[in-house]
Specification:
eight-stranded parallel β-sheet; 40% helix; TIM Barrel; three-stranded antiparallel β-sheet; alpha/beta; 355 residues; globular
Amino acid sequence: MPTPLARRLGLTVPIVQAPMAGGWTTPELVAAVSDVGGLGMLAGARITADQLRELIRATRRLTSRPFGLNLQVPIISPEEAARPANPEPLRRLREEHGLASEPAGTPAWVGPDEAVAIALAEGIRILSVVMGPPGSWLAKARDAGAVVMATVTTVAEALEVEGGVDVVIAQGGEAGGHRSTFRPGAPDHWPLIGTMALVPQVVDAVKLPVIASGGIMDGRGVIAALALGAEAAQLGTRFLLARESGATPAYRRRLLDADETDTAVTDAYTGRPARGIRNRFLDRMAEQGGTPLPWPRQGALGAELYRASFAEDGEWAPLLAGQGLRLAAREQAAAEIMRELTATAREVRERLPRW
Ligand SMILES: Cc1cc2nc3c(=O)[nH]c(=O)nc-3n(C[C@H](O)[C@H](O)[C@H](O)COP(=O)(O)O)c2cc1C
């Protein structure tokens, strides 16, 4: 399935392992996917400049094939930054777990400009962004020959980035993790367009190659994405269960136990909408009805609680995951996941003309 985009990115399989911030997309995972001809993606959010450099170098030591870096570049309007909030429920939770009501302060996370400079210096030539269009670094990335991809959740967002990027990643409402929606607004206005509806509409609207993302878990989904006009499929949740991912044992257990009805989209984790598995945290936030602090402050307020909970039972952590959960039935080596995805995709492709 060597689509034109796969060829351009140097892939033999049109499958992208989604970048997943939080320590989940380890160098081992990224390298394992790239090594067998897919595209491994590192996540560049909530890490320091030194950590980013080390992640890239560690991945490079494990594979000589191309891999990419993802950056979170949220547009934060003055209205969003000033949104009235009541984070009391999260503060109370912190206190119940023995934490001070306010976080001690966050490290200096690497910003997009510095991250791109590091990535280019370290030889990365595939960049993707989420939550907004690329920033002032775009020209530098382009001059260096990088392929730049932007993640969108609506046709309007695709049109907004079309002039400045090489590839559009269409993220359907099924997707696990944060919504890439540029200006999410009030919850009743969050666009949650399913992958099946979004991908062909984006394909028709822009002249760029499109990658489909959201709820794709197996080779059937990969072929469906290609049938909708995408040139590759980006999978997150399925790769969380790769042995090489950084997902903790509690997180893995919940991914294996949960099914398609168990996720919800909420801004309670970070102030921006994200899909995750319902747990005590989400129940408590729903019961106590606070209003999250604007991004990124809600996430910073929750960070220590989340980290501790991931290491324990995951009940108070953002268990980000998509709706295809039942199709992630076991833990596997990343190369085995890739083999299975490709084998099933081939099988489906051969079977289809006989119907
Ligand atoms: C745990 C988790 C973390 C994620 N973090 C990021 C991220 O840092 N950057 C990004 O572009 N997308 C992120 N995503 C979204 C993925 O890129 C992708 O849209 C999603 O995983 C696709 O849906 P699926 O999980 O059903 O495959 C994350 C998804 C998950 C499940």
